[in-house]
Amino acid sequence: MTEELHNEEITNEELLPSSSPSSSLIELTDINKYYPVGKEQLHVLKNLHLTIEQGEFLMIMGKSGSGKTTLMNIIGFLDQSSDGTYIFDGQDVSKLTENQKSDLRNKYIGFIFQQFFLIQSLNVSQNVELPMVYEGTKKENKRRKIAEHYLGLVGLEGKENSKTTELSGGQQQRVAIARALVNEPLLIMADEPTGALDSETSADIMGILSDLNKEGKTIVMVTHDNDMKKYASRVVYMKDGLFLTEEEYNNA
Ligand SMILES: Nc1ncnc2c1ncn2[C@@H]1O[C@H](COP(=O)(O)OP(=O)(O)OP(=O)(O)O)[C@@H](O)[C@H]1O
């Protein structure tokens, strides 16, 4: 959509993506992550390399404790690796300040979580408008119009004024997807997005994500659910902080 709706001036020019057509969206090299536990260092991510291209639907599959969330947090600039390099659309993330990282995160990454994380004191539209508030879109009617567009896209037209507590789990996740889309991010990150939903509703939500990917949106999703693999264009398998081949993973 919506060039006409998204014509706000971008205030921080140096944070624009490099838009070099040949570069990958994400390049992680030699990534390690240690957590201090008492006097020891717990080695949670072990020398990982991962490249993600624009337009992929990458699924990171692994059992509980394998390091998926830690890796997602690094990719989404919510945490940093202990060492290694992370290039996001041509920019070295380690050279960015915390403020620049949060600007980049708000502009270029949309998050979807298992528990939805909607704000109950706000109505549906206000929840979807939040990333635009953070980005500085001041005109309320403009935010509302964009929110309506994305709520329509996820099948929630007419629910703008509803309370989030009046919605089913699947509807709440649709609100979260609309919220993840409003700033037209380069990347959608989904952490177990169907983990709190029944299988029919899960299929609906995965259908929406799949359609978004077919329209060109890059998606990275973590899951422990083998049934989700069919939605992915590529699957990477994790165990104990390492990437495994599918065969190694199935035999582990
Ligand atoms: N802040 C922390 N401090 C110490 N250890 C941590 C911390 N966060 C995670 N860990 C440990 O790091 C390892 C990987 O955790 P992580 O949450 O990334 O795994 P996961 O694959 O996402 O698991 P789950 O599916 O249960 O969320 C686990 O052993 C976990 O206990």
TrEMBL record:
GO terms for molecular function: ATP binding; ATP hydrolysis activity; transmembrane transporter activity. One of its GO terms (cellular component) is membrane protein complex. Residues 1-23 are annotated as: Disordered. One of its GO terms (biological process) is amino acid transport. Residues 26-252 form the ABC transporter domain. Belongs to the ABC transporter superfamily. This is Peptide ABC transporter ATP-binding protein. It comes from Vagococcus carniphilus.
